[in-house]
Write a structure and sequence with these properties.
The longest helix has 14 residues, at 148-161. The protein has eleven helices and 16 strands. The protein is globular and about 60 Å long. Helix 6 runs parallel beside helix 7 (201-210) and helix 8 runs parallel beside helix 9. With 355 residues, the chain is an alpha/beta fold. A hairpin with a 2-residue loop joins strand 1 and strand 2. Strands 3, 5, 6, 7, 8, 15 and 16 form a seven-stranded mixed beta sheet that branches. A six-stranded parallel beta sheet has the order 11-10-9-12-13-14, sandwiched between helices. The protein folds into two domains: 2-146 and 316-351, Medium-chain alcohol dehydrogenases, catalytic domain (Quinone Oxidoreductase, Chain A, domain 1), CATH 3.90.180.10; 155-293, NAD(P)-binding Rossmann-like Domain (Rossmann fold, 3-Layer(aba) Sandwich). Bound molecules: nicotinamide-adenine-dinucleotide (NAD) and zinc ion. Residues 37-39, 42, 150, 154, 173-179, 197-198, 200, 218, 242-245, 248-249, 266-268, 295-296, 341 line the site of nicotinamide-adenine-dinucleotide.
């Protein structure tokens, strides 16, 4: 079958592959909707996880089951499914300790477009189908469901990790699809005042719809200075980092947090070897400002819960979709659009009608 791949660092192209073998607990899926992630861009053009050869890209998909292993109980060929971006080894000890996204090795739950072929092909393989697939509910569109598997799951985790007190103040730095999902999550988790730092007009519009109360333009001065001005020097309880750079963002995040606050990172760090934590702003390491981070949660229950948030009208995942392509060949255009990040883009999706 055909798939769109990272051929090597800085090079993409189409490849031909054999349909992978379906183990007894596994499934083979035919995607019906896929979306490129900013992480695919870090992977190919920044070498953030190292070199990969002819690895099919993509980890955001909704699809149809074409084959299941003989021990799979809850899915059968023809079922419509939501496929989490992260597909952990649920029997691994890291999962038992409560960190399924880090099974086998750090980031080990992230298999598609990292350790194995991703979803940008006519077929892809899912390990442990009963735990790593969710049935597609009635009332959810393919493109809406495709926004849950990584964007909502990651962004909302960013806010869950940020320990937002009921009515507490929150700052979200970077309002691409992940930061916007963090805003959606922060509102649902009880944020009071909710600052969104970003500039893309389309993102600002969705940020307000998802619950942002104040917009900060980071191009008009350091974010922390603007936060301090807007809060009369108080700062915020929780910060989510979902964009930015290694030079300024960590300083801005830590300097915006109150003593006892939490800085929660979901940004995929690349471009330098070290993260600079500002010593004085961090209270010489004694400010009780906590730093947390995490990889997108996967698994069936997570997807079912996120789907319920959409189905019950708490938030609308389709607000993230700004561009819609049709046909396998268009995956290439969608990925390059994600790389260029035009001003009117949040997320593109590619709708597929495969045999
Ligand atoms: P994005 O590029 O669409 O959004 C990031 C935003 O940050 C952009 O709008 C950009 O203009 C803005 N920005 C740039 N410089 C800034 C600055 N100095 N201050 C504030 N904002 C600034 O990306 P996205 O798709 O929303 O993804 C965000 C990050 O999350 C990426 O690094 C992505 O790889 C990562 N990610 C992580 C996980 C995870 O599991 N932790 C999962 C998915 C994506
Ligand atoms: Zn991703």
């Amino acid at each position: 079958f055909k798939g769109f791949a990272m051929k090597k660092l800085n090079e993409t192209g189409w490849v031909e592959k054999e349909v992978p073998e379906c183990g007894p607990l596994d499934a083979i899926i035919k995607p019906t909707c896929v979306s490129p992630c900013t992480s695919d861009i870090h992977t190919v053009w920044e070498g953030a996880i190292g070199d990969r050869k002819d690895m099919i890209l993509g980890h955001e998909a909704v699809g149809e089951v074409v084959e299941v292993g003989k021990l799979v109980q809850n899915f059968k060929p023809g079922d419509k499914v939501i496929v989490p971006a992260i597909t952990p080894d649920w029997d691994d000890e890291a999962a038992q300790r409560g960190f399924p996204s880090q099974t086998m090795e750090p980031l080990g739950g992230w298999k598609f477009s990292n350790f194995k072929d991703g979803v940008f092909g006519e077929r892809f393989h899912v390990n442990l189908a009963d735990a790593n697939l969710a049935h597609m509910p009635d009332g959810l569109s393919d493109e809406g469901a495709c926004m849950l598997v990584d964007m909502w799951s990651t962004g909302m985790m960013g806010s869950e990790n940020a320990d937002i007190p009921l009515g507490g103040s929150v700052l979200v730095i970077g309002i691409g699809a992940v930061g916007l999902s963090a805003i959606a999550g922060a509102k649902l988790l009880g944020a009071g005042r909710l600052f969104a730092a970003g500039t893309r007009p389309i993102s600002v519009k969705v940020a307000k719809k998802y619950g942002a109360t104040d917009i900060i333009n980071y191009k008009e001065g350091p974010i922390d200075e603007q936060v301090m001005e807007l809060t009369d020097g108080a700062g915020v309880d929780s910060v989510v980092i979902a964009g930015g750079n290694l030079e300024n963002t960590w300083k801005e995040a830590i300097s915006s947090a109150k003593a006892g606050g939490t800085v929660s990172n979901v940004n995929y760090l690349s471009g330098a070897d070290n993260v600079l934590i500002p010593r004085v702003e961090w209270g010489c390491g004694m400010s009780n400002i906590n730093i947390k981070n995490g990889l997108c949660p996967g698994g069936r229950v997570r997807m079912e819960r996120l789907a319920d948030l959409a189905l019950c009208g708490r938030q609308d995942p389709e607000l993230l979709v700004t561009h819609k392509f049709e046909g396998l060949d268009k995956i290439e255009d969608a990925l390059y659009l994600m790389k260029e990040k035009p001003k009117d883009l949040i997320k593109p999706v590619v709708m597929l009608d495969l045999d």
